[in-house]
Specification:
single chain; 382 residues; alpha+beta; Rossmann fold; 2 domains; 6-stranded antiparallel sheet; 5-stranded parallel sheet; 20% helix
Length: 382
């Protein structure tokens, strides 16, 4: 059988040196860092992507192991495999660059949990990271790459240095990239359950799968948090092996963050015309690359607890953009009505109580499932 490398996990990166910093960045010194991931699809072998994309100095990896996860920081010792990079057990990743491990001959299935252990011998400085990893990470002093369980580890809620995993899948395997903000990444869903919208969508698919390239706080038109969506296309979509479809949710932060960060002073976000032009540019660039592009309405957020986020102007722009997306003039191949899927029927600008992640801005596990259930899977001809 002919096989090809296909993305099975992705973690979109944030620069730790951004001015807007709602998520705590950090570094490591002489520590073993252990992080887990769940594969969206399976194959005959695995390779791991590591990133120093936003590092300002070279990053020394003093060793890296890959293993099947048991629970918490635990691994199955019988599966523990040292990673190599061009045949060597250590690697230095230059500032601004990424690297891919040599293949590990480890047959894996969709839904399999793997754990990556990295020994970081020097002072990494603030690391390239992602806001909502698959699960809680663990760190302990020294080189403990092969430990079955890390004793009394430090826990951290963000993801660091791990950019993704590919599997050696049957040739012709096609996947979707879920691209956008916190409603893609899975903020307010339960860590370690794969209950983000893309994770729950995968349970509905009978062929191919979806990888998650969401960044909580991300915007369509403005950098921070993370590069804006139009700037992320090449790295986070077009460079993903196997991609044929893109599913997009974006806009909440374009509309809400200006007022939130300026509070109690007023602030203006993009106009509806500017936002529609940005979405059209996004769709056109992805279509030019030969991809199927699925848009979505902007989710509801009226009454959110975040000061200054909910403004009459932002709500008016959201209403105009959503009406355009539900009409016949938008540039997408299909639309998922995310807003309708989770809205309170009596107050459609608000998230219904059973889907509210607690702040009126994010959806919980049940809300993410409602969005996944709203997708017409015939749009995903994978």
């Amino acid at each position: 059988m002919t096989t090809t490398w296909t993305a099975a996990h992705r973690a979109a990166a944030i620069n730790p040196n951004e001015n807007l910093a709602p998520f705590e960045s950090r570094g490591f010194t002489d520590q073993t860092v252990r992080q887990s991931l769940r594969l969206a699809g399976g194959g005959e072998a695995v390779r791991i992507h590591l990133t120093n994309r936003y590092g300002t100095t070279p990053l020394d990896i003093g060793g890296a192991h890959l293993a099947l996860r048991t629970k918490g920081s635990g691994i199955d010792p019988g599966s523990d495999t040292p990673l190599r990079f061009s045949g060597t057990p250590t690697v230095t990743i230059p500032a601004g660059e990424e690297t891919i491990s040599d293949p590990v001959e480890l047959p894996v299935s969709a839904g399999e949990e793997l754990t990556l252990s990295l020994y970081l011998p020097g002072d990494t400085g603030p690391t390239t990271f992602n806001a909502i990893p698959y699960d809680t990470g663990h760190a302990v002093p020294g080189n403990q790459l092969s430990a079955a369980v890390l004793e009394d580890p430090e826990e951290f809620a963000t993801g660091h240095l791990l950019a993704g995993a590919d599997v050696l899948a049957p040739a012709g395997t096609r996947i979707a990239v879920a691209f956008g903000d916190s409603w893609i990444e899975g903020a307010a869903t339960t860590p370690g359950t794969d209950n983000s919208f893309p994770g729950q969508l995968n349970r509905r698919l009978t062929r191919g799968w979806t990888v998650n390239a969401g960044i909580s706080g991300n915007r369509l038109l403005t950098d921070e948090i993370g590069e804006h969506l139009l700037a992320r296309i090449d790295h986070d979509v077009l460079a993903v092996p196997g991609v044929s479809h893109v599913i997009i949710h974006i806009g909440l932060n374009d509309l809400g963050l200006p007022g939130h960060f300026a509070h109690p002073e007023p602030a203006e976000g993009p106009t509806a015309a500017e936002f529609k032009a940005g979405l059209t540019t996004l769709a056109d660039r992805l279509h030019t690359a030969g991809l199927t592009v699925i848009g979505s309405t902007i989710g509801p957020y009226k009454g959110t607890v975040h000061d200054g986020y909910d403004t009459p102007r932002g709500q008016a722009v959201r209403a105009e953009v959503n009406a355009w997306l539900l009409g016949d003039d938008h540039p997408f191949d299909g639309i998922v009505d995310v807003a309708a899927a989770v809205a309170d029927p009596d107050q459609p600008d608000r998230i219904r109580d059973e889907f509210n992640g607690g702040d009126g801005l994010h959806v919980n596990d049940a809300g993410a499932k409602a969005i996944a259930d709203a997708v017409d899977v015939t749009l995903l001809d994978l």
